[in-house]
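S.,

Sequence below, as promised.
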Amino acid sequence: MVTKTKKSILIVDDEMAVRESLRQILKPQYEVFTAADGHEALECVRNQKIDLITLDLKMPGLSGIDVLREVKKLRDDVEVIIITAYGTATNAGESIYFGAGDFIIKPFDVFDINTKVKKSLDRQSKNLEIKKLIRQIRGILPAKEKKKDEKLLILFKDLCGMLESGEFSYPAGIQELMNLQLRHPHPPPD
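The prediction came back faster than expected:
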């Protein structure tokens, strides 16, 4: 019997009450770590396998945006949800620009936290699967076709983005995808 490991969440907030509240909400389903500032958060990301971070914007020392930028340099697959009392369109836009997947305004409710955490972790799983498929495609194409490889990967990423967005008519392009055959002299790796 294979046991499924819990996803891990890092809660970063300078307010102890907020950290504890989020910890209580999330600990039944996830492995939870906490950090009181940006430096602690980055240390935790370096030393632990973190899947998702809830991140306050306004903290002493490193701001939430600074932490977000550094986290994405360290591990671009970590999902980040900004949780802040300073919910402006500018803050939300800047957070999304630097890689946050969602934005929650304080005070938050349990349902909203659980829903957005699940949605973010689902997105992370899909993104990791896409990365795995891209690596498999790279393995299929011979090295001498590197330029074709890069072009194929760009097209593949564009296609994945469109499919993931769900903003297409179901029959649009489905027949072409089903008829697609990559002609290659070598069988794909297992």
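The first strand starts at residue 8 and ends at 12.

Coffee later?
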